[in-house]
Amino acid sequence: MRAWILRRQSRIEERPLELVDNYPTPEPGPGQVRIRIKATGICRTDLHIAEGDLPLHKSPLVPGHQIAGVVDEVGEGVTRFRPGDRAGLTWIYGACGHCKMCVTGRENHCPSIVRTGWDVDGGYAEYVVADEGFAIPLDGVPLDFEDLAPMMCPGMTGYLAFELAEVGPGDRLGLLGFGPTAYYVMKVARSMGIDVYVSTRSRAHREIAQSLGAKWVGNLLEERSPEPLDAIISFPAVGESTERALMSVAPGGVLVLSQIFSTPMTISDYNGNLWGRTIRTVQNVRRSSIYKMVEAAKRIDMSIPKDIFSFDELQEAAVRSRRGELQGLTAVVRVQ
Ligand SMILES: [Zn+2]
Ligand SMILES: [Zn+2]
Prior knowledge:
Elements: E1 3-6, E2 17-20, E3 32-42, H1 44-51, E4 67-74, E5 86-89, E6 92-94, H2 100-103, E7 114-115, E8 127-131, E9 136-137, H3 145-165, E10 172-176, H4 180-191, E11 195-199, H5 203-211, E12 216-218, E13 229-234, H6 241-246, E14 249-257, H7 270-274, E15 278-281, H8 287-299, E16 306-310, H9 314-323, E17 330-334
Parallel strand pairs: 10-11, 10-13, 11-12, 13-14, 14-15, 16-17
Antiparallel strand pairs: 1-2, 3-4, 3-8, 3-17, 4-5, 5-9, 6-7
The protein binds zinc ion (ZN) (2 copies).
One zinc ion is lined by residues 95-96, 99, 101-102, 107, 110, 112.
């Protein structure tokens, strides 16, 4: 099959991905399905892996974990899928199922978790295999593949971040940074009557936030929110933004750090900015949140402003994502 592979990490500007025509097409084993990939999304995490911010766990690696397609073959014993079903695959490729974290519904913290496109080959290819328990049924979600793919990471991790924020109707939720994950969180929050305060410098992103009904749009790195917030979900991989975010979280409130990587962070004013607040981080993603997001996408229009690229253009899509040159909020590659 055709696949984009990563052998050695380097800056994405140096084009570390390589397009090959003869990568082995995976065959589904017992309990596995094979997905013929229709669309695959480019995630900031993929760039962290390509560039060496995160270690390389195998080489060559097919990156990518925003996968939407159609099941084309099923292994022995598979009962949840049949060929022709629409299916997705997310960052969580597998978990042990019996550790303390797994049996208490927190499989995202499983020490044996396997991540798609990091620990095993992922979605920058024509096919991927997955255990049927971790492939996500997508029949009944009224979106095309180009909108399903980005939902598979920003949508799913966004839903987990939203749950960790513990906000409900009438509460005030801040979003520090406005990329695709914030976009999906905002869609869910607005549907529940939560007031959303958006912090972004980008004029285009401010307009999108306003069109979705933001209560306030500004820049929390330079100012405080007009009212103290019940929670903030923060996205920048920059440690300095942490205390800036905390300055707008009310005592009793929650700061959720959504990034997978961060530069060092310090809290200089414990009593003023941290005391009474809770900080949580989003580590990986779990199926309970994924399935809630799938259900939400049956009720709420989860289409997203995006730039669509051909499979041959995948590396250019990654470069343009890295440079912040996209027109929309995310880059999606049409595979076949
Ligand atoms: Zn486990
Ligand atoms: Zn991702």
